[in-house]
Amino acid sequence: MSAGTERQRLLAFRVDGKARPKGSLTPVPVKGRPGKFWLRESSTDGPLWRRHVKAGARAALGSLGGYAGEGGVTGFPTVLPVRVVMVFGFQRIVGTKVEGGEHAPVSTYFGDLDKLIRNVLDALTDAGVYMDDRQVTNVQATKCYVAPGEVAHTLIEVWEDF
Predict the structure, then answer these.
(1) Phi, psi at residue 15, to the nearest 5°?
(2) Phi, psi torsion values for 126, nearest 5 degrees
């Protein structure tokens, strides 16, 4: 990268609560409409958590001077390529060790990382951060334990990536 082309962070925010993965989608026939289907998500709490992420993104956009969309923040939803950085912080389950030992590490709990990522990317689309998650060219995601006594949360940053 040459001088003067420093990538800028577009948005950063935190969502408190345990991150939930996006469930698999199952087609369900629409009664009385042959050949028509709606998609039901297998996860019951994934959509609720996605709404929390959307609300967090909207609040972060609001701190920039308004909401995305009609009369919203200049530059949002962005049409540029973006990099999304996510840190999913989970509370340690009692009896687990943070490093090694006979207990499972954080990576075996709390959902598949790819489905956690999908839920966040869809929420950012819904919030109007970018037009579509096809614009995401780079994702950095980590699952980790939060400090003892700290609430589970997810840190999300959206950066230019061009």
Answers:
(1) -120, 120
(2) -60, -35
> What are the tokens at 41?
């998500």
Helix, strand or coil for residue 45?
Answer: coil
**104 has pLDDT over 50:** no
Contact 141, 110 (CB under 8 A): no
In a domain, 23, yes or no: yes
Tell which residue, 73, 27, 63, 61, has the closest CA to residue 158. Answer: 61
Contact 86, 120 (CB under 8 A): yes
| Structural domain harbouring 82 | 9-160
- Residue 1 lies inside a defined structural domain of this protein: no
Domain containing residue 50: CATH number: 3.30.1330.70
Work out how many domains the chain is built from and give that number: 1
pLDDT of residue 99: 59
Q: How many CA atoms lie within 13 Å of 56's alpha carbon, on the beta-carbon side?
A: 24
